[in-house]
Design a protein that fits this description.
21% of the residues lie in helices and 11% in strands. With 107 residues, the protein is α+β, with helices and mostly antiparallel strands. The termini are far apart.
Length: 107
């Protein structure tokens, strides 16, 4: 099992989760974070830290977010590891909870 970053992270990119990860499994893209499923140790620490509730266990992945399991795996192989908290994107609060954000994912 792994944890998965979901659509609500797109255009928010809060990095509170990065600070608590003991294995540095987070990778950073231009406007989204992903979790490397091969590095994730299922410690559960990241999930409660996300202020926009964009991290869930693979077992709790909503049906409409299934594609994010593959996206996390794919993009974690392309993007660099992030190990320190950064400021969220400037308009993160405005994007929290918006629907259909996948179209805004920058790879």
């Amino acid at each position: 099992m792994t944890y998965v970053v979901l659509e609500n992270c797109i255009r928010c990119k809060y990095t509170d989760c990065v600070d608590v990860c003991p294995v540095d499994c987070f990778h950073e893209g231009p406007n989204f974070l992903v979790i490397d499923p091969d590095e994730c140790i299922d410690c559960t620490l990241c999930e409660p830290e996300c202020p926009v509730e964009a991290i869930v266990s693979e077992d709790d992945l909503p049906a409409d977010q299934q594609q994010f399991l593959q996206l996390n795996e794919e993009l974690s192989q392309q993007w660099p590891v992030i190990t320190q908290r950064k400021d969220p994107l400037p308009d993160a609060d405005e994007w929290d909870g918006k629907a259909d954000k996948l179209q805004y994912l920058e790879k």
